[in-house]
Design a protein that fits this description.
- The structure is a single chain.
- With about 425 residues, the protein is of the alpha/beta class.
- Helices cover about 40% and strands about 15% of the residues.
- It folds into two domains: about 10-45 and about 300-430, Alpha-Beta Complex (Aspartate Aminotransferase, domain 1), CATH 3.90.1150; about 50-295, Type I PLP-dependent aspartate aminotransferase-like (Major domain) (Aspartate Aminotransferase, domain 2, 3-Layer(aba) Sandwich), CATH 3.40.640.
- An eight-stranded mixed beta sheet has the order 2-9-8-7-6-3-4-5, with helices on both faces. Strands 10-11-14-13 form a four-stranded antiparallel beta sheet.
- Strand 10 and strand 11 (about 340-345) form a beta hairpin.
Length: about 425
C-alpha cells in the first residue's frame, strides 16, 4: 500500500495458549488423539454446570427482556448487587457507578490498555498472562515491562524488584497483578498486596488486579480482594463469571473501579473507557441478568467451596507425582486451576527428543522445533509423542523454562494417566541427551 497501515504494536500480539492449538490440530489430522491441557475452559474439559445455575440461565433465556439492550455501564440491578457485595468486604466502598461491564475480560483488557496514553506503561508479573502482557506491549509498541515472580518463594512477587524498576522508569504509571495468579496458581497474602499498594501510593501510580480466580482459593490460601487493601490509591479489579459459574462462553466480565474521585487524571481515564463502551451501546444483557440470581442464591457459597476442594485435590494428585521427578520444580498451587512446571537451570538443550511413533508427526515436529526456545522444544515433542498439549512457559513473557498445565480434566482415570505420562516423558526427555 502507498503507506504503512500496521500500527507499531502489532508484532506484540502473542497468545501462545491458543497458538499451540494450530500445531495440535495438524497432528490430529495425522490421526493422533490430542489431550488439550492448554486452555482454561472447565466446560470443554467435562465439568457440568450445576443444574440450579443452568435452570436460572435457561429461565432467563425464556424471558423477552433478556434480549434487549441494557445500560452502557451494565444492568443497573446487577451493578447495585455487585457494589453491595464489594462493600460487604470492608475496605474501599463503591457505588453502582464504579462498575463497568464488558463482553468478557478480553474486551475489558483491550479497552484498559487501548485507551491508556501510549507513553504510560503498566508493569506486570513474569511469568505473565498472555492477554494482559500482549495488550500492554501492543499499546506501547515495546516489550511488556515485568517484575519477577520468585519460584523459590512459591511464585510470590519480588517487591524489591518492583520498586527498583518503578523508581528508575518514570514512564510506569500503573502496577498490574493477578491474584490468584495465572499461570502459577500462586495466591498473594494480604500483606503482599498491601505492600504493592504502598509502592503504588509512594510513586503515585494506579493498580490493576485481575481477580478472575478470586473465588478459587484452596484451604491454605487467603482470599483477599484488592478492595480490601487499596485504601486511597486509584485502581480497578477485573472480575468475570467465566471460571466461577463456570460460563466461559458467556463472555461476561466487569471492572470494579476504586477511588476515581481521588485523582482527576484517573477519573478522566475511567470516563474514556465508558465513552468507548458507549460506541458499542452495551455488553450482552442475559449473562448480566444472571449474576444477582446466581451469586445471590444461598446455594452459591457451597458451589464455590465444592469446586475449591475439587481443584485442590487435583493439585495434590499432581504434586504427589511430579514433585518426585528430578530436574524440575513444581510448587503446589494455592488457587486457580493451573500448575507451572519449571525446568531446573541447564537441564534442557536443543538435542533432546522423545520417541514419536507416527512417522508423519515425527517429520512435522522435527521440522518445527528448529530455532525455538528449549522449553517449547519439549512441549512440541510431548505433543508429538504423547498427544498432550501444554503451553511453554516462555510463552508467558518470561525467560524461565517450563510449561503450564491445567487441573481441569474431569475423568479421574485420564487425569491420573496424564500426571504419570508427564512424569515419564520429562524423565525420558531429560535423559535423552
Amino acid at each position: 500500500m502507498r503507506r504503512s497501515i500496521v500500527w507499531d504494536g502489532a508484532g506484540q500480539l502473542k497468545y501462545e495458549i491458543r497458538e499451540i492449538v494450530a500445531v495440535a490440530k495438524k497432528l490430529e489430522a495425522m490421526g493422533m488423539h490430542i489431550l488439550f491441557e492448554n486452555i482454561g475452559d472447565p466446560i470443554q474439559k467435562g465439568e457440568d454446570l450445576d443444574p440450579w445455575i443452568k435452570d436460572i440461565i435457561t429461565g432467563l433465556a425464556a424471558e423477552d427482556s433478556s434480549y434487549r439492550y441494557t445500560d452502557t455501564q451494565g444492568e443497573p440491578a446487577t451493578r447495585k448487587f455487585l457494589a453491595a457485595e464489594v462493600n460487604k468486604r470492608g475496605g474501599c466502598r463503591i457505588t453502582e457507578n464504579d462498575l463497568l461491564f464488558f463482553n468478557g475480560l478480553g474486551d475489558a483488557v483491550a479497552k484498559i490498555f487501548g485507551f491508556l496514553k501510549r507513553e504510560a506503561r503498566v508493569i506486570g508479573p513474569a511469568p505473565a498472562y498472555s492477554t494482559l502482557s500482549s495488550a500492554e506491549a501492543s499499546h506501547s509498541g515495546y516489550e511488556h515491562l515485568t517484575y519477577q515472580l520468585d519460584p523459590g518463594k512459591g511464585w510470590q512477587p519480588d517487591l524489591a524488584d518492583i520498586e527498583m524498576k518503578i523508581r528508575y522508569n518514570p514512564s510506569i504509571a500503573g502496577i498490574l497483578l493477578i491474584n490468584p495468579d495465572n499461570p502459577t496458581g500462586a495466591v498473594y497474602p494480604p500483606e503482599t498486596l498491601a505492600a504493592m499498594v504502598d509502592i503504588a501510593r509512594k510513586y503515585d501510580l494506579f493498580v490493576v488486579c485481575d481477580e478472575t480466580y478470586a473465588h478459587i482459593v484452596y484451604a491454605d490460601g487467603v482470599k483477599t480482594h484488592l478492595s480490601e487493601v487499596i485504601g486511597d490509591v486509584p485502581g480497578m479489579a477485573l472480575r468475570s463469571i467465566s471460571k466461577e459459574y463456570p460460563w466461559p462462553g458467556g463472555r461476561c466480565g466487569w471492572i470494579e473501579v476504586f477511588n476515581q474521585d481521588r485523582d482527576s487524571e484517573f477519573a478522566a481515564y475511567i470516563k474514556s473507557l465508558l465513552d468507548a463502551k458507549r460506541l458499542e451501546v452495551c455488553s450482552t444483557t442475559l449473562p448480566q441478568l444472571s449474576i444477582p440470581l446466581v451469586m445471590g442464591d444461598p446455594r452459591y457459597p457451597a458451589h464455590l467451596e465444592r469446586r475449591n476442594r475439587m481443584f485442590e485435590q487435583r493439585a495434590r494428585e499432581m504434586h504427589a507425582v511430579l514433585s518426585t521427578v528430578k530436574g524440575i520444580t513444581v510448587n503446589m498451587p494455592k488457587g486457580a486451576f493451573y500448575v507451572t512446571v519449571l525446568f531446573d537451570d541447564g537441564v534442557l538443550n536443543d538435542r533432546q527428543t522423545l520417541p514419536i511413533a507416527n512417522p508423519r508427526a515425527k517429520e512435522y515436529i522435527e521440522e518445527i522445533v528448529r530455532d525455538v526456545p528449549v522449553d517449547k522444544r519439549f512441549v512440541y515433542y510431548l505433543l508429538g509423542a504423547e498427544g498432550i498439549c501444554v503451553v511453554p512457559l516462555t510463552g508467558f513473557c518470561c525467560t524461565l523454562k517450563g510449561f503450564r498445565v491445567t487441573l481441569l480434566e474431569c475423568n479421574d482415570e485420564v487425569r491420573t494417566q496424564l500426571w504419570h505420562t508427564l512424569a515419564r516423558s520429562i524423565e525420558t526427555y531429560l535423559n535423552a541427551d
